[in-house]
Amino acid sequence: MATNGHSTLQKLVSNDVSTLENPQSSTISFHSINYTIGTQKSSYSLPFMKMQHKQILYDINGVFKSGMNAILGPTGSGKSSLLDILADRKDRNGLEGEVLLDGQPQMSEYKYCVGYVVQDNILSETLTVRENIRFSANLRLSKTISRKTKATIVEHVIEQLGLEGCADSRVGTESVRGISGGERKRTSIGMELVLSPSVLFLDEPTTGLDSSTAHAVLESLHRLSRRGHTIIFSIHQPRYSIFKLFDTIFLVAAGRCVYHGPANSVLPYFSSIGYECEQHDNPADFLLDVTHADTSKNKVNNHELNKKNEENAHRLHDLYIASNVYTLMQQEIKAARNRIVTTATSAVNYHQPSTKSRFSEILYVAQRTLRNVYRNPALITMQTFVPTFLAVLIGLIYLKVDNSESVGVPNRMGAIFFIVVNQVMSNLSAIELFIKERALFIHENASGYYHVSTYFIAKLICDLIPLRIIPSIIFSTIVYFMIGFQSSVAKFFIFYLAIFLTTTCGASICFLSSASVKVFGVANLLAAMSFVLMMIFGGFLVVVSSVGKYLSWIKWVSLFRYAINIITINEFEGLEICPRNNPNNCTMSGTYVINNDAHIQYNNDWDLWYNFVALTYENWFNKTQSGNVGAALFIIGYIGFYGFVIISFFVQQLKETQKQRADLPAYVLKTLWDIPNKNKLYEELADVERLKRIFHSYFSDHESHTETTNEELQTIVDKRAYACASKYREKLRRLHLSHVDYYTDTIPSLSRRTNDVQEQASQSMTPTQTISTKTSIDSSKQDDYDTHFFSVSVV
User: Fold this and answer.
1) For residues 320 and 83, is the Cβ–Cβ distance under 8 A?
2) Which residues cross the membrane (predicted)?
């Protein structure tokens, strides 16, 4: 039995072509969904002083089976919020209710068995259609699948969606024409289909498409639904030819369900409550008109309009729950909730995380990033031309400076300042790069393509080589010898390292700025203001020691100060300064200029360590020893970008932890507070708590039917409780691998109970036997831990 189950699982995880053609049919059911957000209240008081909450969804219940399931409603009705909740893309703060996939709650594996296509087509624009779909397959399919099989899956998806004609065409950018809008949408769908998801969510799939293209996209989805996929999508105002493709309609108005049932029954239903659709009217337009309050006779403001729409939605909702359609749907919803799905056939179990190595993730993401770079000729040209032009310009301005005190010293220091300013400011173009990729990164990370650190490392590698190292070599080689800096191989390489690290640091600050805000203009302003502030305290425009203590601390975060210090020490150490009219009588050393004119403290190695935070002593740098600061500036250079990664990672972890902790009782949280590395434990425990809650809800259903229960209902409830207990035991088995003792101390004998259940059931349960259930409450901890424990015994 176990072998057969394992082979089934192995086949489904492998996502072979037969699975793509006949995917597992799944059912999504949702129960008592309430969703509230906090919004700023309009008042004359300070913005942060008053808050009000707005409820988006009110007690939403429903079920979606395989087929075309449309969520309709006017703008602002809550249809997109409902879709995001079903796809587990909403923060759990303010969210109540539960969503079940094949009778099981949303757990950590959920995102691997559903696909989600966002409203805007988020694709890598320089890649072809085939390359985009292949990228998804490489990162999201199991590493046990061969490259040949993955290629077969990709080609099959392309064929399914009718993309053969544009498979090798690039998606296209704003300046370079690519594929059409409909082909973009189908490519986005294809990137999800490589997983053969049991459920596919789409947010407004017809947005931005003309009528014929929109119909073609929906026809593709209709074909997929006939192969067994559960297609769930929000849509605003479809044409009649699209409306005819729908199997189920969920009509929402002002956050309330006003109809949920078969698409071919929607017009008869509204006719029965007094709303007749004219013979030649589009049913979709008719439904939107019904959900809007009639304001044609009187002019009303927005507040009155919203109030009338609320009243209209209330009335339609009341009519709906009093109808036979509602009664029939409630029976289907209950049946979906009581659905018994075995471990071998559950969609939750045959789509698992990719388990791909971190190195493979970095390789694929870096490969795509490099493709984006070399397929953007304008970027490559500018990254080569601009450094060359500026290097020649600076070289001509300071051509062959002498060693005189009156001209040579000021020109050298001016050239150094000009070089540093140029290298930093030229990185402002890097701001746009991440802002363009922000939506792509967020979507792919949420969909499980890769980790945050993977994106960072790949970006780091691909940013360093083509955009930082090569331009720095070009710039340094030209400007160093044209200006006439000291002729020393060691000094040249120190100069090059300083230029490279300065450029890198400037780029990292730009990345940090672009990661902090979404608007290009704001990000550009933040980076520019940071550079100006750092430049003032760089030591060239003002003597930093003369600035008051309340501002002098800024020098410690000034990129310009570190860069100018490195190049100044490198150039002036060992240089002899002579009068312009007597070049043979050199009376001043470069060290004197460093300490007095440049106001840089440089007497020994300790001063370098003090100024640059960290030193890595290297003997081959001869007397200057300024190369020792290379490692320090490198750390400073990337701390900004890496800071973004750290912040993003912890914000993401915080959100996930909060989402998981929201499902845990206070007593458990208190017990687990001091456990190290508890995020994974939170995830497992949250799954356990959801299973317990589902069990309790089934038991409550059973109790509520004690007077009118029949044998069939008894069997369904009891078997569902057993299935829940089995899943529960599996989660507890995983917990035994880490920190399980803390949890079993909190819940006495819980693990023993579930083990007993499994052993007894495996020994004595037959298909005709009934499992009786009972709940027990740990009364000693009931105040802190208001959760029902349970045990299952076989009669």
Assistant:
1) no
2) 378-401, 413-435, 456-483, 489-512, 519-543, 629-651
The pTM of this model reads 0.69
Query: Strand 771-776 vs strand 104-105: parallel, antiparallel, or unpaired?
Result: unpaired
> Do residues 398 and 483 lie in contact, with contact meaning Cβ atoms separated by under 8 Å?
yes
DSSP state, residue 467: I
Q: What are the respective helix, strand and coil percentages of the chain, to the nearest 5?
A: 60, 10, 30
Strands 51-64 and 28-40: antiparallel
* Predicted confidence (pLDDT) per residue in 237-250, tens digit: 888 889 999 999 99
Task: Name the nearest CA neighbour of 595 among 623, 563, 567, 572.
Answer: 572
**How crowded is residue 679: how many other Cβ atoms within 10 Å of its Cβ?**
12
Cα dihedral sign, 261-266-269-273: positive
Measured distance CA(20)–CA(416) in Å, rounded: 62
Counting Cβ atoms within 10 Å, is residue 193 exposed (0-12), middle (13-18) or buried (19+)? buried
Q: How far apart, in Å, are the Cα atoms of 23 and each of 102, 335, 419, 538, 556?
A: 14, 22, 61, 63, 60
| E-strand stretches of 149-220 | 199-203
Kind plus residue range of the DSSP H or E element containing 248? strand 248-253
Measured N-to-C along each axis, helices 470-483 and 377-397 cross at an angle, to the nearest 10 degrees, of 10
pLDDT at 660 over 50: no
Structural class in CATH, domain 2-337: alpha beta
Domain parsing of the chain, residue ranges? 2-337, 358-651, 663-794
What's the Rg (C-alpha) of the chain? 33
Is the model more confident about 252 or about 630?
A: 252
Which residue in the block uniquely carries the two structure tokens 């942060």? 48
In angstroms, the CA 556 to CA 327 distance is 70
Identify which of 37, 84, 67, 440 has the alpha carbon closest to the alpha carbon of residue 234.
84
Q: Which residue has the tokens 């006719």?
A: 271
Reported in sequence order, the residue ranges of 43-166 that DSSP labels E, i.e. its strands, are 51-64, 67-72, 95-101, 104-105, 114-117
Pairing of strands 199-203, 230-235: parallel
From the list 189, 158, 163, the residue with the least C-alpha distance to 178 is 163
- Average pLDDT over the chain reads 72
552 has a pLDDT exceeding 90: no
**CA 100 vs CA 147, 169, 197, 199: distances in Å:** 34, 40, 15, 12
Task: Provide DSSP, 566-607.
Answer: HHHHHHHTTPEEB-TT-TT---EEHHHIIIIIS----SSHHH
**Tokens representing residue 444 in the block:** 């792919």
pLDDT at 252 over 90: yes
Max mean pLDDT range (119-133, 366-380, 717-731, 733-747): 119-133
Kindly report the CA angle at 785 between 779 and 790, in degrees rounded to 5?
Answer: 65
One-letter amino acid of 680:
K
Tokens of 791: 């045990």
Handedness of CA 357, 361, 362, 364 (dihedral sign): positive
User: Which has the higher per-residue pLDDT, 662 or 23?
Assistant: 23
- The model's confidence at residue 403, banded by pLDDT at 50, 70 and 90, is confident
Indicate whether 233 pLDDT > 90: yes
- The amino acid present at 307, given as its one-letter code, is K
Closest C-alpha among 101, 81, 99, 100 to residue 91? 81
Residues whose CB falls within 8 Å of the CB of residue 699, separated by 6 or more in sequence, listed in order:
717, 721, 773, 775, 788, 790
Half-sphere exposure of 69 (CA within 13 A, CB side): 26
Round to the nearest angstrom and report the end-to-end CA distance of the chain: 23
Measured in whole angstroms, the distance separating CA 219 from the mean position of its chain's CA atoms is 29
DSSP 717-782: HHHHHHHHHHHHHHHHHHHTTTTHHHHHHHSTTHHHHHHHHHHHHHHH--TT--EEEEEE--GGGT
